[in-house]
Amino acid sequence: MRIRHPLLVVALATAALTATPAAAFATTGGHPPVGSGTTIHDTQPSLRILAQRSGLRVGAAVNMDLYGSDATYTAIVNQQFSTVSPENVMKWQLVEPTQGTYDWAPADRLVAGARAAHQLVRGHTLVWHNQLPSWLSTDGVTTSFTPQQVRDLLHKHVTDEVTHFKGQIWQWDVVNEAFADDGTPRQDIFYQAYQALGMNGTDYIADAFRWAHEADPRALLFYNDYNLEFTGAKSNAVYAFVQQLQAQGVPIDGVGFQGHLDTQYGFPDLQNNLTRFAALGLKVALTEVDVRTFVQPDPANPGAYTDIPLTPALQATQQSYWTQLLQACLAVRQCLSFTAWGVDDGHSWIPGVFHGEGAGLLFDPSYHPKPQYQELRKVLLTTHAPRRS
Ligand code: XIL
């Protein structure tokens, strides 16, 4: 069933939320099934349809090893989300594995798929100290190129990548994670090169925005980082820095709040931070949301973990964090999109990076929607908060 009329959507969705007996999903651990047979889309309006009421785009980072080959994964991406981000395939390491030889194929596939599914694309990411090609740097801080060469390579990279995708990217994460948690600029190869050239180390950031704007004047250009959700040294430093960029006439349109939260920390004063950045005349977005928690060890596999939260209380905290993240975005009219960093817990970056933690996403490894997913639907159903653009 395809639903287009917004009022009908709301009526049906309300009915689905209130009238569906929990017992109906007993065989799928309490989650409505997705995949073979019934899909979520057949039984209840998707996140993307519900979010449309407020003009909000909901998104997911897409793993190109699954997209197009795993039918259930692909169906969820297309049915549930109205914007997509490449989880990896637009990063410098992936697009230029050998100096001078580009591989655009996986990213092109995502862009084409997004167009077919009426989705917008968040380009992620042009300049980052991580996932640089090994010919340029293996550890993000050392390179064999001279400072001038690094600047020239950066110029070429930004220009070539933005030009390749010109007209097809809604928001570009132009620069990612340029500040440390203590608010000092990260001294990566770009920072060091610019300092060695007698400039401010952070001048590479202004350059990257200017070059990106020259290559695609219509794309929205974002600075993207984590821990901006919390007021503190880092958020304050970025807040001051983006004002400097604006004062210099640098074409920055927005700031991306990654939103990688963890239940062991308190919920951030996110809405305050979204509001103060938006008050600078910037768009904001939640760009990489996941809410990780400690998970149960796998009894059959010593040293390995399941995707089940350690306690019901932690699961409840996760749900509450997802709800509050979305509510904060909806409360700020300049918050254009809300993107989850992946689809399902079986393909999340969390277990590989945060020992003993996981269960951060909206779908379980069998692609069943988790309670967090239902929470987001409820928030979208009960909130009508139009965006500014
Ligand atoms: C992660 C991907 O999810 C992993 O697959 C990859 O191995 C490393 O990068 N902040 C970012 C993202 O901006 O690009 C990172 O993505 C997660 C943290």
Topology:
Blueprint: H1 6-19, H2 40-43, H3 47-52, E1 57-62, H4 71-80, E2 83-86, H5 92-95, H6 105-116, E3 120-127, H7 147-164, E4 171-176, H8 189-196, H9 203-215, E5 220-225, H10 233-247, E6 254-257, E7 260-262, H11 270-278, E8 283-297, E9 305-309, H12 312-331, E10 335-340, H13 350-353, E11 357-358, H14 371-382
Parallel strand pairs: 1-2, 1-10, 2-3, 3-4, 4-5, 5-6, 6-8, 7-8, 8-10
Antiparallel strand pairs: 8-9, 8-11
(3S,4R)-3-hydroxy-2-oxopiperidin-4-yl beta-D-xylopyranoside (XIL) binds next to loops.
Structural class: alpha/beta
Oligomer: single chain
Supply the number of structural domains.
1
N/C terminus separation: 29 Å
The ligands found in this model are: (3S,4R)-3-hydroxy-2-oxopiperidin-4-yl beta-D-xylopyranoside
Give the averaged pLDDT, no decimals: 91
Quick structural gist:
With 389 residues, this protein is of the alpha/beta class.
Walk me through the structure.
This protein has 389 residues and is of the alpha/beta class. It has one domain: TIM Barrel, CATH 3.20.20.80. 38% of the residues lie in helices and 17% in strands. The protein is built from 14 helices and eleven strands. It has helices at residues 6-19, 40-43, 47-52, 71-80, 92-95, 105-116, 147-164, 189-196, 203-215, 233-247, 270-278, 312-331, 350-353, 371-382, and strands spanning 57-62, 83-86, 120-127, 171-176, 220-225, 254-257, 260-262, 283-297, 305-309, 335-340, 357-358. The chain has an eight-stranded parallel beta barrel with strand order 1-2-3-4-5-6-8-10, surrounded by five helices. Helix 10 (233-247) links the parallel strand 5 (220-225) and strand 6 (254-257). Helix 7 packs across helix 8. The longest helix is centred in the last third of the chain and has 20 residues, at 312-331. The radius of gyration is 21 Å and the shape is globular. The relative contact order is 0.12. (3S,4R)-3-hydroxy-2-oxopiperidin-4-yl beta-D-xylopyranoside (XIL) binds next to loops.
